């Protein structure tokens, strides 16, 4: 059965949208998903399901809202799609701190106009690369003062959720267990 990675947006940030990972695993197993695992406390789920990623996104969002009282967007990638995200790594050895290297998983590809704007942005020393539905961002001076992060979270960008490189590669390892 296919492995999927489901990423919940904006949970367990401070006191809002609190989700217990053991309760989340139990809820999803109760809905018939197989081999449900979570990574850290920020809504990273690996599970098996025959559903398409689009259907899984909708079902998970509804099930989590009904079962845990938290209505949050869910972005899903297959195990193979996540492997491709890692293979396409546009910055490779330029990154010296994987916690400052993020991938934003978008619900859909940005408009051509926004993609062009991103390609032309001067954000040095930060770096940015949009490849399909993933926005790769390198923040060598930290994320808090990032010019790129303000754009990444703007209303013009499709719904998405960011994970640092350590989490991205950890999710693939967890999917392959």
Describe this structure in words.
- It is a single chain.
- This protein is of the alpha+beta class and 177 residues long.
- It has 6 helices and 8 strands, in the order E-H-E-E-H-E-H-E-H-E-E-H-E-H.
- The strands form 2 sheets. Strands 2-3-1-4 form a 4-stranded antiparallel beta sheet, sandwiched between helices. A 4-stranded antiparallel beta sheet has the order 6-7-5-8.
- Helix 3 packs across helix 6.
- It is globular and about 50 Å long.
- The model has no long low-confidence stretch (mean pLDDT 91).
Secondary structure blueprint with pairings:
Elements: E1 3-8, H1 21-30, E2 34-39, E3 44-48, H2 53-68, E4 74-78, H3 79-87, E5 101-106, H4 112-120, E6 127-131, E7 134-138, H5 147-152, E8 160-164, H6 165-175
Antiparallel strand pairs: 1-3, 1-4, 2-3, 5-7, 5-8, 6-7
Biggest sheet descriptor: 4 strands, antiparallel
Shape: globular
Strand order of the largest sheet: 2-3-1-4
Arithmetic mean of pLDDT: 91
Give me some keywords for this one.
177 residues, alpha+beta, 4-stranded antiparallel beta sheet, 34% helix, globular
């Amino acid at each position: 059965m296919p492995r999927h990675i489901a990423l919940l947006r904006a949970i367990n940030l401070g006191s809002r949208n609190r989700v217990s990972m053991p309760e989340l695993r139990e809820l999803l197993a109760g809905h018939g998903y197989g081999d449900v695992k979570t990574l850290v406390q920020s809504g990273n789920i690996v599970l098996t399901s025959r559903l398409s990623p689009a259907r899984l996104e909708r079902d998970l969002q509804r099930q989590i809202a009904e079962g845990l009282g938290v209505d949050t967007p869910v972005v899903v990638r297959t195990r193979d799609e996540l492997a491709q995200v890692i293979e396409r790594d546009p910055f490779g050895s330029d990154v010296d701190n994987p916690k400052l290297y993020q991938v934003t998983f978008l619900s859909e590809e940005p408009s051509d106009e926004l993609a062009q704007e991103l390609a032309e942005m001067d954000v040095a020393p930060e770096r940015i690369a949009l490849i399909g539905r993933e926005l790769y961002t390198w923040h060598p001076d930290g994320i808090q003062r990032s010019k790129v992060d303000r754009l990444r979270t703007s209303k013009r960008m499709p719904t998405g959720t960011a994970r640092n490189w350590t989490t991205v590669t950890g999710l693939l390892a967890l999917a392959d267990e």
